[in-house]
Design goal:
alpha+beta; OB fold (Dihydrolipoamide Acetyltransferase, E2P); 2 domains; six-stranded mixed beta sheet
Amino acid sequence: MRKVIGVKRFNMAVIAAITCACLIQLSGCAKDINYIVDHEPSVRGTVRETDEEYIVIDVSEEDEVYDSYASLEVSLDVERKDSMTSFRVGDEVAVYYDGNIAETYPARINKVYAILYIGDPE
């Protein structure tokens, strides 16, 4: 009987350790907004179209992406859940993403870390 109790305690300890390791791993999945702003590629533009799943932005002429893409469709499935996802036509935004732009028409950004509201165009 004593051996069975020891095995049960050991199994519970292993399960607890695995659970803690998983929770620690998952807590590091979402990138901090400061890290995103400092390290991830971004594009700025003005919202031209809105939808429940995406926005279309006209890329700012000053942005380096503008030479290749005048407009971009941006997914609203944003990694940072505290990121803004409700926009109006004319809003100026900065989109932080993984650096990949799908060659579609319009070109599309699927992996979005954050979308920041910059303001209304001047």
